[in-house]
Amino acid sequence: MDIEWVRRHCLSFPHATEQVQWGNDLVFKVAGKIFAVTPLEAEAAFVSFKCTAETFAELIEKPNIRPAPYMARNQWVLVEREDALPRAELKALLLQSYELVFAKLTKKVKAELGGSHGAPVTRKS
Q: Which fold has domain 4-113?
């Protein structure tokens, strides 16, 4: 599976970082908080991310998308295949995940990041 476009997209968000974690997962974070995860080797998964409760309920009804192990209680989904969603929709969902995590950062952390006035501006790509 080609995860390079996921990587480029996630790293395009302000202050986003990447880190290999848990041995074989590429983890995307903002201020140390995870907003997306993708395995580095072909497995039964493509990408996991946080979403709103409403989006979570809608997504898990679709084929090849299920609640993410260990994180479903926090409205994380696991997209099993790259073609489970149109790329534009997946990009928007990754941005939404980033913004949800960013919104939960403390005022102090947001100020340190230069974003004390709220979440980053949503972009279209």
A: Aspartate Aminotransferase, domain 1 (3.90.1150)
